Amino acid sequence: MSIGLSLPRADGAEKLSGRATYTADIALPGMLHAKLLRSSHAHARLLRVDAGRARTAPGVHAVLTRDDVPEGLMPVYGYFIKDQPIVATDRVRHVGDIIAAVAAETEAQAVAALALIEVEYEALPVVASIEAALAEDAPELFPQAPIGFVPAYGEGARGALRPAKNICFEFGYRMGDAAVFDRCDHVFEDEFRFSRMWHFHLEPFVSVADARDGRIEIWSSNQNPFPLRKELSRIFRMPENAITVRVPYVGGGFGSKNNCKTEPAAVLLSMLAGRPVRLALTLAEGFLTNTQHAAILRLRTGVMSDGRLVARQSHIELDAGAYSDASPLVAEKAGYRIPGPYAWEHVESLCRCVMTNTAPAGPFRGFGGTQATWASESQIDMIARRLGISPLAMRQKNLLKLHQAYMPGESGVDSDMEDGLQTVLAAIHHTPAPDRGLGFAVGFKDGGGVNKPAQARVKVSTNGDVFLGCGTVEIGQGARTAIPQIVAEILGTSATRIRVAPIDTDHTPFDQGTNASSGIAVMGQAVARAATAVRDQVLGFAAAQMGTPPETLRLEDWHIIRGNERLPLGPMIMRYYGGTGFEFTADGFFKPDSDHHAPLEAQCVYWEIGWAAAEVEVDRGTGQFTVTQLVVAGDAGRAINPMLCRGQDEGSAIMGYAQAMFETMRYDAAGELLNGDPLHYRVPLAEDLPARFTTLTLEQGHGPGPFGSKGLGEGAMLPVAAAIANALEDAVGIRITELPLTPERVLRALDNLEKATA
Amino acid sequence: MPPETIRFTLDGRAAAITAEPTEPLAHALREHCGAQGVRVACSRAVCGACTVLVDGLPAASCAMFLWQVEGCAVETVARLKAHPLQEAFARHGAFQCGYCTGGFLMLAKALLAENPSPSRAEIAEYLSSNICRCTGYSVIIEAVEEAAAAMRAPA
Amino acid sequence: MFRAAHGLIATTVNTAPRAALCRACDVAEAVAALAQPGAAAVAGGTDLCAGFNAGLTPSLLVDLSRLEVLRGIEITTEDIRIGALVTHAQGSRDQGLRAALPGFAAAWGMLANPRIRHRATIGGNIMARHTRYEMSLLLTALGARLVFAEGEQTPAQVWNAAPGLLTHIVIPRHAGQRFIYMRGLRPQLTLAVHRHAGGGLAAIGTEWLHPVALALADAGLEELPETFADHVISRWYARRAGAALLARGMEALDAA
Question: Which residue of A has its CA nearest to B104?
Fold first, then answer.
């Protein structure tokens, strides 16, 4: 039995000895080192890029500027909208935009050469915020429309490219009749602001590319090798079978390592140099590469006097930064998730991606759900208090019940929302005191991606040694530990007998990516099917050999069990297949059914829920407050490995906690990032933990994944900031609608409250 | 000035590297000595992924010059063999992506050498030298507590 | 990130051009070496290495570690003399200092983190001229003098000028001297209070602003400069929270 055991991580031997191989550890013969020249302007026309002197600098083998991109390439990339160039062409759109790259024998030589490149900028007006980009007189960041497409949507949902100036994409969703607002006793309109974090994955972006002889081999710190292969194929106009992507261990991503980052420039430099090239960014360059989405969220919510929620209109603007990256997908999720886990008669959401002269925003743990939960769970609390209803009663009245459909055509929620809420409330030992308060929130998102397929392969040798091929990247979540536990359970063997093959797109079965908390609930299903198919093959083989129906047989430790009989499989296999042995092998595939009635074209695989309760104490002198207790719960459905579940929830919750308390990127109006370095950008440390911090892994048992499992990893982050803001109001009566909840904001709110009540 | 040869011990073995005065310790250990467990992340002595012990004290090897360890004993995570800290980290799941892990293990080793019976608060304070973005730290603190107890216990 | 003439480059200590190394054996040799163009002093080296990320390219590294005269803490009835090479760990644990000025020893022990404290020196903390590093703020409140081989300076002067070799830090002693450092709001705002029989001084600082001395009597921080604001906190907040910290510091020192 493997399921439910906190088996130690399978990557422990490598990671605890320091021997684990990450991309930066890959060294190829003749490998060159690349560095980048980035824009110092937030928005400028590039009048001149002259790399003449760099080309002859010592040690230089390749220089890449706009003049060096070979004819016939498609040197722009992006998820839905191909708007990001490998190197800037006519203009730069954010501080840090890539202008040139050099590959040289050493990094020092590459840097020396970069310093010789002359760039003449003509500064253009800068729009560094959502408001600035939407102003009437704002400059148009993309005067010409980049290539883009809108995914297919089902009932009630729609998407559009470039609906207005500086908006690259908008997502809309509508359900029910807006006339119900007229029947509401109250309609509340509130605006919320969501801050912007950087992922701060400790392993910086890095790729090693060898692009010679019409082939590309690339090792990269990447979360979705197959979509990356497809994008490289499109950019470089090469067949996908001429491209091999390998992904060693990845040192954290939290969303940032999806799609192209360092890869296209590394490949192009390697092509130009005729040598392998390592492009390793510094951690600080990560701030300029991909970030979370800041957001402004306006909610208009209609309710009855008894607290029943009726209708919600939402208008969300995401700061997409300079290039679209995954912004359209994030917009889709924020727009779809903003109603939260409540029953409504009418919902109308609009979410727009606003282009600004800041770093490109993309996938970040929570993926639109964090933004949506912050606003939604804050407003639910605010409305409860305005109506004189307890925030708990308000939620109890409106929470979706288990199996109740989220929206028409959508799947039913697969967690008991109220049970989770009661669980965290029971675990927090709150005793009221002056300036102390309790808050809670329910985080909510669809999990497992949209319409996401996954494939896996399980092979078993003559002696019962198991190989698992699956494209889920080990990025820290424990995929190489938990997924084998599923296989072990099905094959009746020990998880330690399962070898997970390294990821190599030539051999690994297809997967869309390690994202959307999909490892267990999506890939896990493909793996379970492959393992089941192998088991059935083996039992079928044994049944034929034994002349008995397979239903009478069981597999255990590579023995066939029939009643009290226990027959070793090895000799049986060799008798039939010959002494040189055999491998049983089977593929598994999973994809949710396409369904045009579902708003996002397929029903959600599962619902990822996080519950949080927080207790705060406020210092009225400084506005500083401490979170004295934080209790967070996620629903694993069935915990495949409870230790790993806790790890996912805890890490996720602390990211949400940091966002609530202090962690944020700070831009000025000129588009300069003011704290974009590891010293000034504050991430949580061990001493920042709440005095009492508890995570609970619920196993409500309703998940669609193997053995009733669901995904984890994002849910616990979602409710934390709103729970803390709600606790602040409970403690001292203030409401802060903007993150982070800085002492200055608290002190101002306390002052304003005093003035208002004076 | 010709490059100097710097002599020190690395994980108990004699080492001699000839390098420029600006050669950072982390780079020298990784590129010349194969010390793969020394991870470079922030390049600024902030995150501690590159933490090694120099004469028993923790140091960010990304922010030291190689010549500063002349004659010193340098220890990396490769020095640890079935160490109680490694075992406790494994039991508690005190690592995820693993990029910070070598640094945390060496940091914790220095803590326990300095203070064999640290309180939870002392552990948290000491471990606040380094950054782990994955775990949320509780499990690392628990692992260090457990390793401390194991190391105090009579053999 | 290095702001080069034509754009940003992510330099690191790894990308540094070649430099020479001078292992100074005495103060005179160090002073002479540091007087050369492109020279950079290496004490712990922690901040210097970080400087490469901002594009620092010294051509001469001057190793100070052999200057034994820059180590050690001497305490007399007049003052406390701290050698520039004393590390945070050594200084904060120094028995004499803990007896003479326990509040300062405790504050010193809070700087940076345990990993840095073993290597980073008091001199490096000051000479880094980094508003996030806190020693300058502590010394401002203490009315300390910085002794360079070339002459004396105040902590405030060092932000602008670049003298050569810092050898000692001198903290004057006073009857009834007490010190407390409040850094609970860090990195946004910290405040040190220094009281003695003849008066005292407070100092306030942020992650981004040079520390400012405050009269202990200025309970409302009326005299806080109009420019005391950064992109994290406003002057309004600095005054309000600073006043609360000052009152608490005074109270704590009264109780002590």
Answer: A16
Q: Which residues of A touch C132 (CB under 8 A)?
A: 679-680
CB C111 within 8 A of CB C126: no
- Closest chain C residue to A744, measured at CA: C237
The whole-number pLDDT of residue B1 equals 61
Residue ranges covered by each domain of chain C: 2-63, 68-172, 178-255
Among the partner residues B36, B41, B92, nearest to A18 by beta-carbon distance: B36
Give me the CATH code for the A29-124+215-274 domain, please. 3.90.1170.50
Say whether residue C76 is in contact with chain B using an 8 A CB cutoff.
Answer: no
What is the average pLDDT value for chain C, to the nearest integer? 96
Residue in B44, B111, B126 nearest the CB of C50: B44
Residues C193 and C179: beta-carbon distance below 8 Å: yes
Segment A387-409, tens digit of pLDDT: 999 999 999 999 999 999 999 99
User: Measured between alpha carbons, how far is B140 from B124 in angstroms, rounded to an integer?
Assistant: 9
| Contact between chains at C10 and A36 (C-beta distance less than 8 A) | yes
> In which residue are the tokens 């501690």 written?
B48
Question: By residue range, what is the domain housing residue B126?
Answer: 80-152
Please tell me the CATH code under which domain C68-172 is placed.
Answer: 3.30.465.10
The predicted-structure confidence for A570-629, as pLDDT tens digits, reads as follows 999 999 999 899 999 999 999 999 999 999 999 999 999 999 999 999 999 999 999 999
C-alpha to C-alpha distance for A452 and A631, rounded to whole angstroms: 32
> Does C46 touch chain B if contact means CB atoms closer than 8 Å?
yes
A714: closest chain B residue by CA: B134
Of residues A496, A497, A465, the one with CA closest to residue A573 = A465
Q: Residue A609 corresponds to which tokens in the numbers above?
A: 């829920």
Alpha carbon C30 to its chain centroid, in Å, reads 21
Neighbours of chain C (3+ CB pairs under 8 A): A, B
The minimal CB distance from A683 to the residues B89, B90, B133 is found for B133
Residue B2, pLDDT > 90, answer no
Q: How far apart are CA C24 and CA C32, in angstroms?
A: 9
Pairs across B and C, CB distance < 8 A: 85
Residue A681 has a pLDDT of: 97
Report whether pLDDT(C163) > 80.
no
Residue A758 has pLDDT above 90, yes or no: no
Helix axes A327-337, A369-387, angle to 10 degrees: 20
Write phi, then psi, for B3 (nearest 5 degrees).
-60, 145
Range A297-329 burial, b when 16+ CB lie within 10 A, else e: bebbbbbeeebbbbbbbbbbbbbbbbbbbbbbb
Contacts of A477 in chain B (CB under 8 A): 96
Question: What tens digit of pLDDT does each residue of A14-47 get?
Answer: 999 999 999 999 999 999 999 999 999 999 999 9
Query: What pLDDT is stored for residue C171 in this prediction?
Result: 98
Mutate to test the interface with B, among C23, C87, C115, C121 (most CBs of B within 10 A): C115
What DSSP assignment string belongs to A507-542? TSPPB--S-TT-IIIIIHHHHHHHHHHHHHHHHHHH
CB atoms within 10 A of CB C115: 27
For residues A475 and A139, what is the distance between their CA atoms, to the nearest angstrom? 40
How is residue A68 written in tokens? 């060096």
Domain boundary at B55, B78, B101, which?
B78
CATH architecture assigned to C2-63: 2-Layer Sandwich (3.30)
- For the cut 70, the answer to whether the pLDDT of residue A721 exceeds it is yes
| Mean pLDDT, residues A658-670 | 98
List the structure tokens of A231. Answer: 């994008």
Given B32, B51, B78, which residue is the final one in a domain?
B78
Q: Which CATH number fits domain A295-449+597-757: 3.30.930.10, 3.90.230.10, 3.40.50.300, 3.30.365.10?
A: 3.30.365.10
